[in-house]
């Protein structure tokens, strides 16, 4: 007997996709986006940058290697939902401790499988990211459209996912001290800095510049995170107060916030960049890097004119800004994720660049 489909997605334009539910029960309104990564669903599920978003995985089989305790990017996943073609609830992996569905149920994350994810991805690509309702298959379309029309997507994601208090992560024989402003920070960023001899002090998103300075850092790191960068003016003001005093390195949302602090502007992309296969040209070396990305917003190229920022990297798919730098202030940022895990390792040199800037400053 063929099981009856019990869950569906309704998009703002009225499209419906019926499938089977997994993970947590219930309904959820999300911003629907797609990710082209072939591996790394655990890191995607636990990346705070996906807060309130329903992620459609273009790779067809998800769940087959389960969930490993060491691979989470945050302690409590805040992703809105996960939509896949085929879900495997019997993983084969000696490191796995739980199934994907069990973890999603534990953290209240709704899931849907058994739909045509290729068709859904094309629709998002053609019409752009939008609100979507994941609900019971028997909900009338008119009721679903009414829910979508009357539900606003939240804008307080950073304040919800950031740490509430200062946390410290010591390296073995640390040489440098980095203060990281947590806007939704992936744990592998901390691992990447610790591996390079940096003691990392992670502070909440709204920590004022005076507090950061009182910690006597060698450098300041600006983390990734969810949402519109203009929703967190407090972080932008902190960056303005710190620029020129310490080397600064920003990733993803941190890159956007750094650009805003120098007077540039940002805008929302039609469907964003999400996946581990985006080619980026380094304009300083003329080399192409394969990068891992996850963002809805980008820095406006024209708005950089008149600022002290130089464009250092561009996306070869759509020519969007992928990196900026202010050499005078020893500040730089990239839109992509050099700490990606799993993912391409082409851009790990950016952490080494940050280390060199801190060493030059501390020895000056």
Written overview of the protein:
With 364 residues, the chain is of the alpha/beta class. The protein is built from ten helices and 19 strands. A ten-stranded mixed β-sheet has the order 10-12-11-13-14-19-18-17-15-16, sandwiched between helices. It has a seven-stranded mixed barrel with strand order 1-2-8-6-4-3-9. β11 (176-182), α6 and β12 form a beta-alpha-beta unit. α8 (233-242) packs across α9. The N and C termini lie far apart (74 Å).
Shape: globular
Distance between the termini: 74 Å
Biggest sheet, in brief? Answer: 10 strands, mixed
Secondary structure class reads: alpha/beta
User: Which residues sit in consecutive blocks of at least 5 with pLDDT less than 50?
Assistant: none
Strand content: 25-35%
Provide the spatial order of strands within the biggest beta sheet: 10-12-11-13-14-19-18-17-15-16
Helix-strand pattern: EEEHEEEEHEHEHHEEHEHEHEHEEEEEH
Rg value: 21 Å
Number of helical stretches of at least 4 residues: 10
State the helicity in percent bands.
Answer: 10-25%
Number-wise, the strands total 19
Average predicted local confidence, pLDDT: 96
In short:
This protein is α/β, with parallel strands linked by helices. It has 10 helices and 19 strands.
């Amino acid at each position: 007997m063929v099981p009856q489909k019990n869950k569906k997605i309704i998009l703002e334009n009225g499209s419906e996709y019926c499938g089977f539910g997994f993970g947590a029960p219930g309904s959820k309104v999300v911003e629907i986006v797609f990710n082209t990564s072939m591996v790394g669903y655990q890191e995607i599920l636990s990346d705070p940058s996906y807060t309130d978003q329903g992620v459609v995985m273009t790779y067809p089989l998800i769940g087959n290697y389960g969930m490993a305790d060491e691979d989470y990017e945050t302690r409590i996943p805040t992703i809105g939902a996960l939509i896949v073609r085929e879900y495997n609830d019997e993983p084969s992996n000696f490191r796995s401790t739980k199934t994907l569905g069990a973890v999603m149920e534990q953290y209240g994350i709704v899931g849907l499988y058994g739909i045509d994810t290729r068709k859904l991805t094309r629709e998002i690509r053609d019409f752009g990211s939008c609100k979507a309702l994941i609900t019971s298959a028997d909900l009338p379309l008119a009721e679903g459209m009414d829910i979508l029309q009357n539900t606003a997507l939240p804008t307080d994601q950073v304040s919800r996912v950031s740490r509430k208090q200062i946390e410290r992560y010591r390296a073995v024989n640390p040489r440098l001290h980095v203060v990281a402003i947590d806007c939704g920070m992936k744990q592998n960023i901390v691992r990447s800095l610790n591996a390079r001899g940096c003691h990392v002090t992670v502070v909440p998103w709204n920590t004022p510049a005076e507090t950061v300075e009182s910690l006597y850092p060698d450098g300041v790191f600006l983390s990734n995170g969810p949402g519109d960068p203009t929703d967190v003016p407090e972080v932008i003001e902190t960056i303005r107060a710190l620029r020129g005093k310490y080397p600064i390195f920003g990733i993803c949302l941190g890159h956007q916030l750094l650009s805003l602090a120098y007077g540039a502007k940002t805008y929302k992309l039609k469907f964003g960049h999400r996946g581990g296969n985006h080619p980026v040209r380094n304009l300083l070396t003329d080399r192409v890097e394969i990068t891992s990305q996850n963002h809805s917003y980008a820095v406006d190229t024209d708005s950089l004119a008149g600022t002290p920022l130089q464009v250092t990297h561009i996306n070869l798919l759509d020519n969007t800004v992928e990196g900026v730098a202010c050499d005078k202030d020893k500040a730089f940022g990239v839109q992509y994720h050099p700490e990606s895990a799993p993912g391409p390792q082409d851009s790990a040199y950016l952490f080494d660049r940050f280390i060199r800037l801190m060493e030059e400053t501390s020895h000056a």
